[in-house]
Amino acid sequence: MNDTLIVYYSLFGNTKNLAIEIAKQTGGTMRELVPDKKYSFDYNTAAKEVRNEISRGFCPKLIRGNESIDDYQTIFIGTPNWFKTVAPPVLSFLKQFDFTGKTVIPFCTHGGGGFCQIEDDIVKECSEATLLSGIAINGSAESESISRWLETIAYSQ
């Protein structure tokens, strides 16, 4: 069994597409985070909901994706950049598990903001893990850019 897990939350499919490409290139297992309450598919409404949750530090209950991580050594964690930080379902996942001794690799999709404080927020929740440099993708992920990034961080299966 491959000991790599690719965990992600994606509302509009961008982060999911990046997770799929990472899984193809690493052979890792994909795991989608699904909160108990879905966000609105209307962008403006979803943005209001999310801004409110982030400002309160809200962590939604996960109905899928919160299975044990014990069998995995390397965990890629993917999120859209929502108001400069991780999406609340990703925060729920991060707070639920102990990442001691694991290698954590963040990735995000964004509309021009890059990582902002996403990597710092992940470090705060995974302080006992080894964190490798992540990738932030604006638009669609090209397989070549993912390959170069994996080489840069010396990822090996």
UniProtKB/TrEMBL annotation:
Highest taxon of the lineage: Bacteria
A GO MF term: oxidoreductase activity, acting on NAD(P)H
Boundaries of every Flavodoxin-like domain copy: 4-153
Stated name of the protein: Flavodoxin
